[in-house]
């Protein structure tokens, strides 16, 4: 066996362990663990104390963590809800988002802050569905009109941003026309695989085998999901698209086909355990390790970009919430705007791709990621406060009428 050091990976795993543990001692502190994980990576990485370096084992597991994160994000999307009025409003809202984000990108380009206004526009257009779903669950809003609208809009934004990032900024090269052809080929192959998996899922004999082995050491359903994930990542890579698209589509496909979980209720929990218990924290911590804060803190002008990017994120994703005013009211629309502006994973991914392609300076990448971190810290908490204010107003209104 080749000599490989796992020392850095050990420190990363310690951060992954200690972060939620410390937060567990302060349950009233509403800070997402991913924020603390990235902050720990910054403090202990090259920008801080220099204790941890990103070597091959850390880098490989971080890439797997990104793939699993996008896979789980795709798994959250319920295609059955992507129809009717909800879908139309979500699509219209994303159209508004793209228009505003392109204008914001042009403004940042005119200030000479970014080299590619379109990359920044795509980064600002995303919403992290995986971060806002727990917030909606905690607020008991998952099945409310507010929750359904936010989930629909966030699903469209997440899917659209992943698609645009892969189509416009693939590290595999090629022009837009070539990438579009690759995307069509990829979609056709995904559809073929989806039909094949759906037909196999209806097989009584195969279903019996999966049912018998799903909770044994074979863990057949989990292995099948992982094989599909890796297969789609390889497929996207071979075709010349970004691997994140393959991972995301794999999650959407599994979520679409695997609608009835009554025979395997622990399947999603097992996938969450692999992702959030092992691989995903490595990706976020590594993102912190790779963040160049020296350049960000080198000047006031560079540091000023963080709140400006944060404000741009709120405007780009928050303004479309005006479409919900008639359906859910002012307070709920304000909460929806804040939740939709919560984004981090795709911002981190876009920033890394931008640095690799030379379209984004490390200082701007760091500012974008810091803005994403602040969005996960501030916007969900503010949304919950707005929803509580709405509930208080609703409770007080009958008493006033009496």
Summarize this structure briefly.
With 402 residues, this protein is mainly alpha-helical. Helix content is 76%, strand content 0%.
Class from helix and strand fractions: mainly alpha
Describe the oligomeric state of these chains in a short phrase. single chain
Unreliable stretches: none
Task: Work out the strand percent.
Answer: under 5%
Radius of gyration from CA coordinates? 21 Å
Query: What gross morphology would you assign?
Result: globular
Q: What attributes characterize this protein structure?
A:
single chain, 402 residues, 0% strand
Description:
With 402 residues, this protein is mostly helical. 76% of the residues lie in helices and 0% in strands. It has 18 helices and no strands. It has helices at 7-24, 33-44, 56-76, 84-110, 117-124, 129-138, 145-168, 176-201, 204-213, 220-239, 243-257, 267-289, 293-296, 300-318, 325-328, 330-340, 345-357, 362-401. Helix 6 (129-138) runs antiparallel to helix 7 and helix 17 packs antiparallel against helix 18. The N and C termini lie far apart (79 Å). The relative contact order is 0.15.
């Amino acid at each position: 066996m080749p000599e490989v050091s796992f020392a850095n990976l050990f420190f990363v795993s310690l951060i992954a362990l200690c972060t939620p543990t410390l937060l567990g001692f302060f349950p009233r502190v509403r800070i997402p663990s991913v924020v603390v994980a990235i902050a720990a990576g910054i403090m202990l990485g090259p920008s801080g104390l220099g204790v941890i370096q990103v070597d091959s084992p850390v880098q490989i597991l971080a890439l797997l963590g990104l793939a699993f994160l996008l896979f789980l994000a795709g798994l959250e999307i319920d295609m059955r809800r992507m129809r009717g009025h909800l879908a139309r409003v979500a699509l219209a809202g994303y159209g508004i988002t793209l228009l505003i984000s392109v204008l914001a990108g042009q403004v940042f380009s005119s200030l000479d802050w970014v080299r590619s206004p379109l990359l920044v526009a795509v980064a600002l257009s995303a919403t992290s569905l995986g971060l806002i779903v727990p917030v909606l669950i905690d607020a008991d809003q998952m099945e409310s009109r507010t929750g359904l609208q936010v989930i629909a809009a966030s699903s469209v934004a997440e899917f659209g941003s992943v698609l645009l990032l892969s189509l416009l900024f693939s590290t595999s090269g090629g022009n837009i026309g070539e990438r579009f052809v690759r995307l069509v080929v990829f979609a056709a192959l995904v559809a073929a695989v989806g039909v094949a998996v759906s037909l196999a899922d209806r097989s009584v004999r195969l279903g019996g085998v999966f049912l018998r082995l799903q909770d044994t050491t074979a863990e057949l359903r989990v292995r099948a999901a992982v094989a599909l994930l890796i297969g789609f990542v390889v497929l996207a890579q071979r075709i010349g698209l970004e691997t994140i698209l393959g991972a995301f589509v794999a999650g959407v496909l599994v979520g679409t086909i695997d609608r009835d979980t009554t025979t395997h209720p622990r399947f999603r929990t097992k996938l969450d355990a692999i992702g959030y218990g092992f691989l995903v924290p490595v990706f976020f911590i590594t993102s912190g390790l790779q963040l160049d804060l020296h350049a960000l803190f080198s000047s006031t002008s560079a540091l000023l970009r963080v709140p400006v990017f944060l404000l741009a994120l709120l405007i780009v994703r928050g303004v479309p919430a005006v479409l919900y005013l008639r359906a859910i009211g002012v307070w709920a629309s304000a909460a929806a705007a804040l939740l939709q502006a919560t984004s981090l994973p795709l911002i981190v991914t876009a920033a890394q791709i931008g640095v690799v392609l030379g379209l984004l300076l490390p200082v701007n990448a760091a500012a974008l990621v810091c803005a994403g971190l602040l969005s996960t810290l501030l916007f969900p908490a503010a949304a919950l406060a707005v929803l509580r204010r709405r509930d208080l107003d609703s409770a007080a209104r009958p008493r006033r009428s009496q």
